[in-house]
Write a structure and sequence with these properties.
disordered C terminus; elongated; 8 helices; 5-stranded parallel beta sheet; Rossmann fold; single chain; alpha/beta
Length: 274
């Protein structure tokens, strides 16, 4: 049975969709806010999300971003916003389709069927364990559960302003570091070429910016790997690219050729090994 998460702050819309979808053999869960939607999706991953943009606690585009951090579940926006700029923003954020209110149930059902047909088979769990680290792809947060309980947190969700441990134990991941980490985690065990990563993280026109990629990989390893010189999870394939090696397949790599013997300076001015 296809599980659908309906997110809307209008009780009448939630009720109408729940009744109509259950009558057509869909399993339906509902959420009236963005935070509730993200929690429900993490606890019970849906096969399809129907999402309003005008939510009381956050914009629906931010919900799309939270979901896209860990899942490729089809997202159909169902919104009263009919302006083309709203549609473009939602689709660029990761929505698969956009239906404006008022809407016809038959059209919505057809779009749902089409979206489910296009769904990739594999999904990442919303949380991944890397040794003593827990990577929460929904909250965009990495938590260290080892001695001291150090938390490593992305700047995108209000991280602190320095890359080194703070009194409260927080270390930030910049938006670029987080994006690079997400891309790697979404492709476990797969070699990603330098060109693929540059295009995915920085966009077209950065094919020759290999120095940027080496810099940010070094920063991620410095923050996340037990021994950045001998990475266990963020692996270099010399001359080809990088791969995320899941913990159950991880082996300690020889000293990283990107790092050995060279120093770089990150955009915030802190020195690090590449």
């Amino acid at each position: 049975m296809t599980r659908v998460l309906v997110v809307d702050d209008e009780p009448q819309i939630l009720r109408a969709l729940r009744i109509n979808l259950r009558a057509r053999q869909y399993e339906v869960s509902i959420a009236a806010s963005g935070g509730q939607a993200l929690e429900e999706a993490a606890a019970h991953p849906p096969d399809l999300v129907i999402l309003d943009l005008g939510l009381p606690d956050m914009d629906g585009v931010d919900v799309i971003g939270g979901l896209r951090g860990w899942t490729a579940v089809p997202i159909i926006v169902l919104s009263g916003r009919a302006d083309s700029s709203d549609k473009v923003e939602a689709l660029d954020a990761g929505a698969d389709d956009y239906v404006t209110k008022p809407f016809g149930m038959d059209e919505l059902l057809a779009r749902m069927r089409a979206a489910v047909r296009r769904t990739p088979a594999a999904e990442l769990p919303p949380r991944l364990a890397l040794g003593d680290l827990t990577v929460d792809l929904t909250a965009k947060r990495v938590t260290r559960t080892g001695p001291g309980g150090t938390r490593v947190r992305s700047e995108e969700n209000g991280g602190v302003t320095d890359g080194e441990p703070q009194p409260d134990g927080d270390i930030r991941l910049t938006p670029t570091e987080w994006h690079l980490l997400e891309v790697l985690l979404r492709n476990p065990g797969k070699l990603l070429s330098h060109r693929q990563l540059l295009n995915e993280v920085w966009g077209p026109g950065y094919d020759n910016a290999g120095g940027n990629l080496r810099l940010y990989m070094a920063q991620l390893r410095r923050k996340l790997e037990p021994d950045p010189a001998r990475p266990r999870w963020l692996i270099t394939e010399p001359g080809m690219g990088y791969r995320y090696q899941p913990p159950d397949q991880a082996q300690e790599q020889a000293p990283d050729p990107d790092r050995a013997g060279r120093l770089a300076r990150d955009p915030d001015g802190s020195a690090l090994g590449k």
